[in-house]
């Protein structure tokens, strides 16, 4: 059975809900407030089986201007629209705004239904028809039927069903997709079942027992039960109005505007790239960074629209933009969206997602212009390369490439293999591959070399830079594996050398400035002549007016040459003095079984407690002696 979604559209009180009830027997105004006030506030749902086998899921949307955001949510996933216009009132403001929204979201099939035909005579019908023909001229409904009906008398309903059948047969079946998506338009609980969400299945299929992800939060849950059009089913497919009973999820953990999808299939993003059509009905130019409401699927997100190649957009223009949002959205390439003004609220325009997970772009930038052109008009390899290059240091995985190009499975694998064979991209590993553009990889390698070179200039007495310190100095967000691949590439080419975690350029030789070398020699000589009563190193810093970094470099150089031995923090001894002390202690134990602190003081020539205790603890640490109470013995 063919599954399609029919959406109503039109001004408030033009009879949308009455039409659906007369057509299906279902009153879509389920809320008490809706029934009391006689207006639709939330989305309503019904269904209709056409004679030739097509099943229509019907979404009845609000007509009041205050509830246009609910109308936009309902328009997500619509295959054909019924534009409702009352015969006694004709085209009204919300009729026009709903038409704009349907056009912006890419709806291309539908018809115009003129309700309340029983309230007007033939002359008024002709006037209404002329008004409607002027209104639909130049829109996707221009060549579609215009049918007069009366929900009260039943006039026109046979013709309406025939036209719905005819239009439904013209709409192609939905293409298969590798993943399932359902934007949530309603959340409620039912006793004995728990939390249930509803929405229109946009792509793929879902089955009972399947693990799915709730986006953008990333919460995992299982499908406990499924219904389509009030019937229990094992599976649900694209094009169906679907109710999903979720396992282990309370009502407060999920909300309208979120998406359920195949596990780990989507990527939340705070930015969206698109070509944006600024409606010709707008009265003034659109300014860069205008605050907007971004509608996609059933979600509404606050943000700003960034005009990438100009300061203002004139009404009717289609331009490259980047939406920067205050909360994340989960879109796929070619998803329709609508942007509305912040205050007062009206529809600015809309379009289709070009890149659902872009990097932040610079304005008036040639690379950004080239990226947009490749994503829109490029060949398949050019589109894939554009996405990979735009992902920069982060790299792209197969999931991201799929949602950014709408290419997946074997086709995507083949394209990736071809790009790898031509060395246009590089990859990090086979199990969970990330792909990087060759230009990005070259940039990473050059960045690594520049950072190491800069480190050598600032630290001429150090052998090299620690790997962890180097990655910290590079641009934020760099993938660890591509960093290591860059290092390995430079090592393989002979440009760098890595010893354990220390990386240096091959040409680097430790250089010591003459004055630093003189200071080093003077400090070493002071320790040499002081024997077992050396100065603390901070005294040397003060004596030779060394800043902290220079002092560290000098000390590192001395220790690298093994000229001093560290006994305690800031306390060092000349290496020969320590070696002689070790020999004297061992010689003492040739004639004695144990050694007291006074005995050790005699061995050292009478050093004070300031040096005596640290030296005793050092001998213990070096496992020459072992302390037992107040005495020490020679270790075996």
Q: Low-confidence stretches at least 5 residues in length (pLDDT < 50)?
A: 34-41
- Helix proportion of residues, in percent? 25-40%
Q: What count of helical segments does DSSP give?
A: 19
Within the largest sheet, what's the order of strands?
Answer: 2-3-1-4-5-6
Cα-atom radius of gyration: 38 Å
What is the CATH topology assignment of the largest domain?
A: Rossmann fold
**Alpha-carbon distance between the termini?**
89 Å
The tally of beta strands, per DSSP, is: 32
CATH architecture assignment of the largest domain = 3-Layer(aba) Sandwich
Strand content: 25-35%
Shape: elongated
Q: Major beta sheet, specifics?
A: 6 strands, mixed
User: Which class of secondary structure composition applies to the elements?
Assistant: alpha+beta
Q: What's the name of the CATH homologous superfamily of the largest domain?
A: P-loop containing nucleotide triphosphate hydrolases
Q: Average the pLDDT over all residues and give the rounded result.
A: 89
Total number of domains: 5
CATH class of the largest domain: Alpha Beta
Q: What does the model show?
A:
The protein has five domains: 3-170, P-loop containing nucleotide triphosphate hydrolases (Rossmann fold), CATH 3.40.50; 181-262, Translation factors (Elongation Factor Tu (Ef-tu), domain 3, Beta Barrel), CATH 2.40.30; 269-366, Beta Barrel (Elongation Factor Tu (Ef-tu), domain 3); 378-511, Winged helix-like DNA-binding domain superfamily/Winged helix DNA-binding domain (Arc Repressor Mutant, subunit A, Orthogonal Bundle), CATH 1.10.10; 525-634, Orthogonal Bundle (Arc Repressor Mutant, subunit A). It is 35% helix and 28% strand. It contains 19 helices and 32 strands. The strands form nine sheets. The protein has a six-stranded mixed beta sheet, with helices on both faces. Strands 7-8-14-11-10-15 form a six-stranded antiparallel beta barrel. A six-stranded antiparallel beta barrel has the order 16-21-19-18-22-23. Helix 7 (366-377) packs antiparallel against helix 8 (380-390). It starts with a strand and ends with a strand.
């Amino acid at each position: 059975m063919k599954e399609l979604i029919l959406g109503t559209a039109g001004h408030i009180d033009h009879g949308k809900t009455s039409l659906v009830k007369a057509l299906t027997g279902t009153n879509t105004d389920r809320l008490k407030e809706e029934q009391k006030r006689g207006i639709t506030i939330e989305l309503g749902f019904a269904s209709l089986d056409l004679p030739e086998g097509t099943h229509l899921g019907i979404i009845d949307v609000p007509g009041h201007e205050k509830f246009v955001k609910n109308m936009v949510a309902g328009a997500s996933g619509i295959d054909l629209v019924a534009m409702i216009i009352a015969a006694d009132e004709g085209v009204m403001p919300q009729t026009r705004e709903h038409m704009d929204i349907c056009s912006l979201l890419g709806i291309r099939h539908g018809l115009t239904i003129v309700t309340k035909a029983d309230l007007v005579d033939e002359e008024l019908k002709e006037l209404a028809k002329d008004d409607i023909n002027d209104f639909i001229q130049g829109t996707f409904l221009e060549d579609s039927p215009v049918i007069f009906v009366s929900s009260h008398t039943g006039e026109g309903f046979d013709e309406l069903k025939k036209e719905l059948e005819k239009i439904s047969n013209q709409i192609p079946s939905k293409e298969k997709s590798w993943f399932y998506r359902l934007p949530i338009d309603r959340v409620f609980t039912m006793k004995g079942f728990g939390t249930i969400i509803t929405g229109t299945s946009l792509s793929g299929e879902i089955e009972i027992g399947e693990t799915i992800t709730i986006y953008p939060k990333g919460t995992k849950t299982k499908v406990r039960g499924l219904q389509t059009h009030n019937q229990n089913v094992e599976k649900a497919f694209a094009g169906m109005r679907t109710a999903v009973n979720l396992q282990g999820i309370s009502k407060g953990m999920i909300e309208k505007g979120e998406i359920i999808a195949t596990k780990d299939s989507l990527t939340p993003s705070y930015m969206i790239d698109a070509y944006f059509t600024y409606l010709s009905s707008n009265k003034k130019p659109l300014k860069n960074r205008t605050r907007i409401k971004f509608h996609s699927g059933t979600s509404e997100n606050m943000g700003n629209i960034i005009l990438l190649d100009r300061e203002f957009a004139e009404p009717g223009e289609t331009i490259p933009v980047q939406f920067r949002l205050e909360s994340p959205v989960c879109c796929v390439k070619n998803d329709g969206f609508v942007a509305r003004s912040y205050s007062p609220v009206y529809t600015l325009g809309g379009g289709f997602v070009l890149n659902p997970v872009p990097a932040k772009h610079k304005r008036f930038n040639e690379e950004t212009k080239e990226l947009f052109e490749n994503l829109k008009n490029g060949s398949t390899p050019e589109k894939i390369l554009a996405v990979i290059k735009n992902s920069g240091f982060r790299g792209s995985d197969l999931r991201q490439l799929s949602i950014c190009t709408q290419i997946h499975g074997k086709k995507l694998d083949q394209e990736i293999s071809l790009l790898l064979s031509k060395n246009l991209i590089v990859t990090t590993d086979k199990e969970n591959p990330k792909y990087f553009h060759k230009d990005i990889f070259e940039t990473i390698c050059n960045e690594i070399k520049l950072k190491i070179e800069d480190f050598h200039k600032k630290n001429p007495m150090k052998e090299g830079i620690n790997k962890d310190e180097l990655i910290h100095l590079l641009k934020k967000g760099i993938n660890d594996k591509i960093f290591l691949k860059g290092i390995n590439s430079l090592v393989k080419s002979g440009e760098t050398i890595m010893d354990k975690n220390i990386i240096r350029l091959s040409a680097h030789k430790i250089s010591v400035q003459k004055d630093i070398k003189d200071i080093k020699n003077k400090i070493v000589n002071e320790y040499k002549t002081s024997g077992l009563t050396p100065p603390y190193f901070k005294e040397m810093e003060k004596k030779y007016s060394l800043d902290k970094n220079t002092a560290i470099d000098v000390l590192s150089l001395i220790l690298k040459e093994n000229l001093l031995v560290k006994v305690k923090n800031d306390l060092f001894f000349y290496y020969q003095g320590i070696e002689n002390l070790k020999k004297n202690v061992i010689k003492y134990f040739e004639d004695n079984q144990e050694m007291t602190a006074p005995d050790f003081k005699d061995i050292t020539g009478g050093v004070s407690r300031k040096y005596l205790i640290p030296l005793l603890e050092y001998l213990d640490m070096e496992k020459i002696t072992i302390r037992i109470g107040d005495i020490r013995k020679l270790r075996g």
